[in-house]
Design brief:
Helix content: 25-40%
Strand order of the largest sheet: 6-5-4-3-2-1-15-14-11-10-9-8-7
Order of helices and strands: HHHEEEEEEHEEEEEEEEE
Strand content: 35-45%
Distance between the termini: 125 Å
Largest sheet: 13 strands, antiparallel
Number of strands: 15
């Protein structure tokens, strides 16, 4: 009875609703189940989550690939630089030095201008052994463009017979993307290579006369860090200018360069000036070039060398100071 009555009551209700809709002329309202809205919202969130996850994966993959490229580039660059050092050392080992002095003596200074004599008396001790190899590490700042200084570290090898060097620098121009630079000179031949992270070449020059003469001039100027290389027995010709300035001239493999050396009150080299080849849009242009050495000296194996230095171009459009560094470490090997 109760079930039948219930069924009848529910059936009556349905009939009443149906009759009401029929009277009103409106179609019956069909409502979606509440859980379907939740499914739509959940589905949208899931799609957005999948997109965000894919983006994160792509970004992480790019970062990992860039990190791998930087690590690989650094390892490859270091191996290449080590090979450049090894080639220069091998060249020095096979270059005859017969007839070259093994020690410094005061008699070598007799014919030199007064400021040059004072200089060698200041930085060398009697019977100082002649430098064969010099290893100099620097840190400091480099400016590719005027006043845009970036931190750098470098290691450099110099040889005196033959005259040569390899400069291997790490310039921190971009975060996690260092600029690696390697300059080389040996027996009249020079090269310059610069890359982003050791992978992407930015500069690659080799074999031009302007590059070679500029590199030889650089060697003679930087010989303040290996002073016995400036002695007349090493082929440097000195001529007087005044009581505090002298001119140094060097010939190497058919290249001749000249620089004026200015000496401080205590005999140290304070400044060098020269006309040096500068690359201007692929063309070598002789430009005034100035290097300044610190008055402060440090003692390395009996030899006194400048603690720091800076270099600049004096171009028609204005001065461009581009290198300033401090000696982080120095070591010599002697004949």
């Amino acid at each position: 009875m109760l079930r039948a009555a219930g069924v009848g009551a529910r059936g009556k209700t349905r009939m009443e609703v149906g009759n009401h809709n029929e009277v009103s002329g409106k179609p019956p309202m069909v409502r979606a189940p509440r859980h379907s809205h939740r499914m739509v919202r959940r589905g949208g969130k899931d799609a957005m989550g999948r997109i965000a996850g894919a983006v994160i994966i792509v970004v992480v993959a790019i970062i990992v690939a860039a990190a791998v490229a930087v690590i690989y580039g650094s390892m490859s660059w270091n191996r290449s630089s080590d090979a450049s050092f090894a080639r220069l050392l091998a060249l020095a080992d096979t270059t005859p030095v017969t007839g070259l002095p093994t020690t410094f003596s005061r008699e070598q200074l007799d014919s030199l201008p007064a400021p040059v004599r004072r200089y060698f008396g200041r930085v060398l001790i009697p019977s100082q052994r002649m430098i064969r190899l010099a290893y100099i590490d620097h840190d400091g700042e480099f400016a590719l463009k005027p006043n845009q200084w970036q931190r750098f570290t470098s290691r450099q090898l110099y040889t005196t017979a033959p005259r040569g060097f390899v400069w291997d620098a790490d310039i921190h121009m971009l975060p996690f993307m260092p600029v690696r630079v390697r300059d080389r000179y040996a027996a009249g031949s020079a090269s310059m290579l610069a890359t982003m992270a050791g992978v992407i070449k930015v500069v690659d020059q080799e074999g031009t006369p302007g590059l070679a003469s500029g590199a030889l001039l650089r060697f003679i100027a930087e010989a303040a860090w290996l002073p016995t290389a400036l002695l007349p027995s090493e082929g440097v010709r000195w001529s007087a200018i005044d009581d505090s300035t002298a001119r140094a001239t060097v010939s190497d493999a058919g290249i001749e360069v000249t620089m004026d050396v200015h000496f401080g009150t205590e005999g140290e080299i304070s400044r060098i000036t020269a006309m040096r080849e500068r690359d201007v849009n692929g063309t070598s242009v002789l430009t005034p070039w100035v290097g300044e050495m610190s008055r402060e000296l440090m003692l390395v194996s009996g030899v006194k060398i400048p603690v720091s230095a800076s270099v600049k171009w004096v171009a028609p459009e204005g001065e461009h100071a581009y290198w300033r560094g401090r000696v982080r470490g120095a070591r010599f090997e002697f004949r």
